[in-house]
Design goal:
3 domains; five-stranded antiparallel β-sheet; seven-stranded mixed β-sheet; Nucleoside Triphosphate Pyrophosphohydrolase; alpha+beta; about 500 residues
Length: about 500
């Protein structure tokens, strides 16, 4: 009954209905109705005690009852027949549409993320060390994309893997590897000790291989292992002290990663009026100090792993939204659930889009999308209302808003302006500004804008021309430096 209700609820939304799962629901309902009518026809024929006089009787008997009855001018179940025909028609249209879309998509290459942004030289060196090239993995700045959902549509609300807690099932499963803690190898005496940190909390490293991310049903499977804050920070200190440490010790393949890392959720949050939430991070944060984040980040925590397995990803999303986007920080699990109920009615989508490797941090991250069903003005009002009676939010930065045009400007020009949520001040961020972008902000915006169709076309040409122009300048600069060195030597 639940499946029937959900199918008819989604009939009003063709994009949501146009999935294999709901096509099978429609076909299943049609087949069930067909069998029911055929059974009724058989019973009617059996009760009549009639024999088959010729081949035509066999034909009428073998034909489904919902066809034979009208041919015999027998007014039987006309509403049911009309409903069955409607279901079969919708299913047929959806099947044809999916076949055409599949044919078109088979000719399309993956989202051309690499042509919209420069790969960092260090990221390319890491790929080279792993025997890979940008042709194998999309590279956006220091971000290396190692897994992306095949279901990326212009409507991001049906893209990727669904993990909204209100749904009966989740498309994302987080499995805890029951083995020894995954700690940083070879901590030296000059590196951080437990006493250096007020809380040496438990963290989780991603340890599964990209090839095993997907199971037979197409669900996303993440396998994590224990580590701790001290071990992760020791790795970060080595990266800061040795520019080559990440190149020689990092890996895009989690199964051979030897350094402790903390799996993180990088979330892009969009409001109903199309604006994107972002945050200018404070200097007191552990990562990406003073940088513009689109929209927030939250590491997988012990309290997420304590919930039932199918709900781990959903709980992670809920905690990130309550603590990072809304002023609804929680100390106890019960308090988080109470806070979640305050925002659940306006949170319509929670989707996981891809998995990336942060080459500058030797870390893995889940890239997600969330939609909040309220405009920027309504968001301000709700935020203010919740601030008056809450335990506060994680004070990691200044909340800001970014329009699609400002996001495009950042992708094309490398810098743009964001508007603070309170006061409406303009904050310039990006290349050559006092507020650089978070390392994965460019990737998140490129993925979002490419999927929504905002990047292809003229904007894509401008970006491609800009990259080509900069590459030519680099070649000319190298040639000039070579000539200068030659002149000095002679």
């Amino acid at each position: 009954m639940t499946q029937i209700k959900r199918t008819f609820k989604w009939i009003a939304s063709p994009e949501k209905l146009k999935t294999r799962k709901n096509l099978l629901r429609l076909v299943g309902l049609a087949v069930l109705s067909l069998l029911s009518f055929s059974l009724k026809g058989f019973l009617d024929h059996y009760k009549s005690n009639e024999t088959f006089s010729d081949i035509s009787e066999w034909v009428f008997f073998l034909l489904p009852y919902w066809v034979s009855a009208p041919l015999k001018s027998d007014p039987v179940l006309p509403p049911a027949i009309a409903l069955l025909v409607l279901m079969l028609t919708i299913a047929g249209i959806i099947l044809i549409s999916m076949t055409i879309d599949g044919f078109k998509n088979s000719k399309k290459s993956p989202l051309p993320l690499a042509k919209f942004c420069h790969p960092d030289p260090e990221a390319l060196k890491i790929l080279e060390a792993q025997g890979a090239t940008p042709a194998d993995f999309a590279v956006c700045g220091p971000i290396i994309e190692i897994c992306r959902s095949k279901k990326i549509y212009t409507d991001l609300s049906i893209s990727g893997w669904d993990c909204h807690p209100s749904n009966e099932t989740s498309d994302v499963f987080v499995r805890h590897k029951s083995s020894a803690a995954f700690l940083h190898e070879g901590l030296s005496e000059d590196e951080p000790s437990v006493e250096d940190f007020e809380h040496n909390g438990k963290k989780y490293s991603l340890v599964e291989t990209p090839a095993n991310f997907l199971d037979s049903e197409g669900s996303l499977v993440l396998c994590v292992q224990d580590t701790d804050y001290r071990s992760v920070q020791a790795v970060q200190k080595r990266i800061r002290n040795d520019p080559l440490f990440a190149i020689h010790n990092g890996s895009i393949f989690p199964e051979i990663q030897k350094q402790a890392n903390s799996l993180c959720l990088h979330l892009l949050v969009q409001l109903a009026d199309g604006k994107i939430l972002c945050m200018q991070r404070m200097s007191s944060t552990s990562y990406a100090k003073n940088k513009m984040s689109v929209s927030c980040e939250e590491q997988l925590a012990f309290e997420d792993m304590c919930v039932e397995k199918p709900d781990i990803m959903g709980h992670w999303f809920k905690r990130a939204l309550c603590e990072e986007i809304f002023p609804l920080g929680a100390i106890q699990p019960a308090q988080l659930e109470m806070n979640w109920k305050k925002i659940e009615p306006i949170v319509s989508d929670m989707r996981v889009l891809s998995i990336v490797y942060e080459s500058n941090y030797i870390n893995y991250a889940i890239v997600g999308y969330c939609r909040i069903d309220c405009t920027s003005e309504e968001f301000r009002e709700k935020y203010q209302e919740m601030s008056e009676n809450s335990t506060g939010r994680d004070k990691e930065g200044i909340p800001c808003l970014l329009t699609e045009g400002q996001a495009l400007e950042f992708v094309v020009n490398g810098k743009s302006r964001a508007t603070t949520l309170w006061g409406g001040d303009q904050i310039e961020f990006g290349e050559g500004t006092e507020c650089p972008a978070h390392p994965s902000s460019l990737y998140r915006l490129v993925l979002f804008l490419t999927a929504s169709g905002a990047l292809p076309g003229q904007v894509g040409k401008e970006i491609a021309q800009r990259i080509a122009s900069e590459q030519r300048l680099e070649v000319l600069q190298d040639e000039l430096n070579r000539l200068l060195r030659h002149e000095k030597s002679s």
